[in-house]
């Protein structure tokens, strides 16, 4: 899939996942793959800059948690600001989606 | 070993990040991800030697990742915080040095000035115009305990013309550096009792010699049986027999 499309929606996708459940980086990547049926495949190197930027902006808060098998993971939790941002992103996506469809579906053109 | 390549990968990422204070957390996060990936491939039955390579490949270019993270963990804010800490530490060190140097001087004075260094002639010449010859020069080494410290009466000098000179040191608790000089005024209130007579110290003239303070009593008799230093002022009192 063309990488440009991914750029458009990545904030939305990641925030959306985190809003449902606190997640760590690896978990986010795996869930994206599963839910999109492997269409969205994030490289780890792309994900972490996004997550750290989210934290800087206050969209998420992170904490370390050690699992039963002694594995330590850094979890990300969405904040109130993050939820607001998620709503904004969803709205933007709806506008984008609608606009694309309008251009694709309109068969009657002004400039002909 | 296995973890070496993972460490190398992380090191490459961190090398691009100027804000060193986040390095530890970033390392923890990346390492846990690398290990999770390794487990995933191991479950798929991938060979040990191939595991590491796959994982590193999956993670992408460490330098690129590092550069992007560097953009986010902005050095400027980091250095501002670091500089403010530096200022605090510098102030602390300055205080320690400043206080410490006074303390050191005090200790050094005690250590290096011994009785052998005491030049009686030089001392005498500092006393004034009148010719004075020491008739008696005696080490006393007497300690008088005060409410908050002690007096060390080190030496007694008696001159031919009837002057008694006491060389002493004061040590007050919580005032080792003698910042509170006015607290204890021996000169004003310390009486010298020779037998039945009482003498008050000279108010001016030589006040200190080297690290000693000086008490001078003029026109005292040469002969006496009993010599006592007496101080009575507010909460502090002492009577000490000197001879």
Task: Give a description of the structure.
The complex is a heterodimer of chains A (about 110) and B (about 240). With about 110 residues, chain A is an alpha+beta fold. Chain A is about 60% helix and about 15% strand. Chain A is built from 4 helices and 3 strands. In chain A, strands 1-3-2 form a 3-stranded antiparallel β-sheet. In chain A, a hairpin with a 5-residue loop joins strand 2 and strand 3. The longest helix of chain A has 26 residues. Chain A is elongated, with a radius of gyration of 17 Å. The model of chain A has no long low-confidence stretch (mean pLDDT about 85). With about 240 residues, chain B is α+β, with helices and mostly antiparallel strands. Helices cover about 45% and strands about 25% of the residues of chain B. Chain B is built from 7 helices and 9 strands; from the N terminus they run H-H-H-H-H-H-E-E-E-H-E-E-E-E-E-E. A 5-stranded antiparallel β-sheet of chain B has the order 1-2-3-7-6. In chain B, strands 5-4-8-9 form a 4-stranded antiparallel β-sheet. In chain B, strand 8 and strand 9 form a beta hairpin. Chain B starts with a helix and ends with a strand. In chain B, about 15% of the residues are buried. Classes of the chains: A alpha+beta (about 110), B alpha+beta (about 240). At the A-B interface, helix 3 and strand 3 of A face helix 2 and helix 4 of B.
Q: Helical region count of chain B?
A: 7
Instruction: Tell me the major beta sheet of chain A.
Output: 3 strands, antiparallel
Describe the global form of chain B.
rod-shaped
* Whole-angstrom Rg of chain B: 37 Å
SSE ordering of chain B: HHHHHHEEEHEEEEEE
Counted beta strands of chain B: 9
Strand order in space, largest sheet of chain B? 1-2-3-7-6
| Helix coverage percent of chain A | 55-70%
What portion of the residues of chain B fall into strands of 2 or more residues? Answer: 25-35%
Please state the structural category of chain B.
alpha+beta
State the assembly state of the protein chains.
heterodimer
The CA-CA distance between the termini of chain A, in Å, is: 33 Å
State the order of secondary-structure elements of chain A, H for helix, E for strand. Answer: HEHHEEH
Poorly predicted runs of chain B are 103-116
């Amino acid at each position: 899939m063309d990488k440009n499309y991914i750029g458009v929606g990545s904030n939305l996708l990641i925030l959306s996942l985190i809003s449902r459940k606190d997640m760590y980086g690896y978990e986010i990547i795996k869930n994206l793959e599963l839910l999109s049926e492997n269409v969205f495949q994030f490289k780890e190197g792309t994900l972490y800059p996004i997550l750290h930027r989210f934290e800087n902006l206050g969209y998420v808060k992170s904490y370390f948690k050690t699992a039963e098998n002694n594995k330590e993971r850094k979890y990300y939790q969405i904040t109130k600001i993050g939820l607001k941002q998620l709503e904004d992103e969803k709205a933007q996506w709806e506008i984008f989606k609608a606009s694309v469809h309008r251009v694709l579906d309109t068969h009657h053109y002004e400039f002909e | 070993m296995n973890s070496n390549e993972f460490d190398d990968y992380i090191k490459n990422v961190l090398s691009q990040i100027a804000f060193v204070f986040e390095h530890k957390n970033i390392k923890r996060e990346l390492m846990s991800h690398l290990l999770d990936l390794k487990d995933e491939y191991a479950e798929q039955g991938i060979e040990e030697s191939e595991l590491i390579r796959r994982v590193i490949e999956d993670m992408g270019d460490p330098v690129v990742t590092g550069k992007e993270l560097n953009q986010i963990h902005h050095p400027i804010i980091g250095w501002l915080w670091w500089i403010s800490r530096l200022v605090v530490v510098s102030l602390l060190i300055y205080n320690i040095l400043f206080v410490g140097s006074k303390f050191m001087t005090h200790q050094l004075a005690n250590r290096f000035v011994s009785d052998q260094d005491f030049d009686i002639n030089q001392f005498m010449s500092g006393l004034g115009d009148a010719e004075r010859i020491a008739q008696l020069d005696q080490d006393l080494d007497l300690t008088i305990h005060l409410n908050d410290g002690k007096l060390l009466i080190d030496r007694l000098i008696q001159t031919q013309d009837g002057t008694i000179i006491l060389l002493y040191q004061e040590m007050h608790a919580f005032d080792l550096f003698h910042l509170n000089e006015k607290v204890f005024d021996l000169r004003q209130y310390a009486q010298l009792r020779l037998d039945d007579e009482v003498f008050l110290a000279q108010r001016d003239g030589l006040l200190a010699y080297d690290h000693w303070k000086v008490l001078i009593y003029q026109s005292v008799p040469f002969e006496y049986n009993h010599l006592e230093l007496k101080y009575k002022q507010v909460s502090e009192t002492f009577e000490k027999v000197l001879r």
